[in-house]
């Protein structure tokens, strides 16, 4: 290999993004991803979002993946076969991780991902290796086929004890902490989907101190996409994805319009990738 600096061309603008979208159940994460340029959706056993008729009309949905081999098989077919898909969607990381754990346990004859031969972090390290194999294939589709990658994830609520302030509840990626850290580092943009609620205090009975806090939906069911992290939820992005408005409608078109505007402000062109 000749290490000739003159042979290195200036790269194009923004490359197809690697997206992680997290959110509460049934908020519309799969519908958002289904509008991302005729995607191939890989539903993982335990997910039903891609079964909806409106999604079937705008995206191609693979048979339900029940093993790691099936996920890898579909990703490899996107690399080697002719197709017109502009993106690939894994739906979801939260249901794929138990399949990864089960296969690792079977391979090592271990009763659990932290037990037997998989104790002392061995099982978690093997889990990360499996996730890295998946993200490497997604990266290959990005470079060789110019495809957007989207990983959908569920969230759980966890208490966060801030050593510099008050403690609070926070939405977090519903996978193991090591998996979450690795996938969030890999992503170019992390999105959080939810409805908008406010907390109101209601008086119970006649005693003024007998009150209860209750979350109230103030948008009549409208769903929103949050592009930046806050104490209550994850989010964020690199490059132009870190310059998006904090709140957008939960709609692929609105997201792409915001990306185009951020790209134009930075580069002078409205064609992001």
Describe the structure.
The protein is an alpha/beta fold and 273 residues long. The chain has a single domain, classed as Rossmann fold (3-Layer(aba) Sandwich), CATH 3.40.50. The protein contains 7 helices and 12 strands. Strands 1, 2, 3, 4, 5, 6, 7, 10, 11 and 12 form a 10-stranded mixed β-sheet that branches. A two-stranded antiparallel sheet has the order 8-9. β2, α2 and β3 form a beta-alpha-beta unit. α3 runs parallel beside α5 and α4 crosses α5. The longest helix has 24 residues. The mean pLDDT is 89.
Q: Which residues form runs of ≥5 with pLDDT under 50?
A: none
The total beta strand count reads 12
**Main sheet summary:** 10 strands, mixed
Could you name the CATH topology? Rossmann fold
Count of spatially separate domains: 1
User: What gyration radius follows from the Cα positions, in whole Å?
Assistant: 21 Å
Number of helix segments?
7
Helix content: 25-40%
SSE pattern: EHEHEHEHHEEHEEEEEEH
Distance between the termini: 29 Å
- By CATH, the architecture is named 3-Layer(aba) Sandwich
Strand content: 15-25%
What number is the mean pLDDT? 89
Shape: globular
């Amino acid at each position: 290999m000749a290490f000739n600096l003159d042979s290195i061309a200036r790269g194009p603008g923004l490359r197809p993004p690697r997206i992680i979208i997290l959110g509460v159940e049934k908020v519309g994460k799969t519908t958002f991803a289904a509008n991302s340029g005729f995607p191939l959706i890989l539903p993982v056993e335990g997910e039903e979002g891609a079964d909806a008729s409106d999604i079937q009309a705008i995206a191609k949905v693979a048979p339900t993946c029940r093993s790691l081999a099936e996920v890898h098989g579909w990703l490899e077919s996107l690399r080697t076969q002719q197709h017109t898909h502009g993106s690939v969607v894994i739906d979801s990381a939260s249901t794929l991780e138990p399949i990864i754990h089960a296969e690792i346990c079977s391979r090592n004859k271990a009763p659990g991902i932290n037990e037997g031969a998989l104790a002392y972090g061995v099982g978690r390290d093997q889990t990360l290796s499996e996730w890295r194999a998946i993200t490497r294939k997604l990266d290959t589709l990005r470079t060789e086929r110019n495809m957007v990658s989207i990983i959908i994830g569920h969230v759980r609520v966890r208490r966060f004890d801030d050593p510099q302030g008050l403690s609070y509840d926070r939405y977090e990626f519903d996978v193991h902490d090591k998996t979450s850290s690795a996938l969030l580092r890999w992503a170019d943009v992390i999105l959080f989907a939810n409805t908008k609620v406010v907390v109101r205090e209601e008086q119970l009975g006649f005693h003024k101190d007998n009150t209860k806090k209750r979350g109230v939906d103030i948008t009549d069911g409208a769903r929103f996409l949050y592009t930046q992290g806050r104490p209550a939820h994850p989010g964020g992005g690199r490059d132009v994805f870190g310059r998006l408005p904090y709140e957008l409608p939960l709609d692929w078109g609105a997201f792409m319009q915001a990306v185009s505007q951020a790209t134009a402000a930075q580069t002078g062109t409205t064609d992001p990738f």
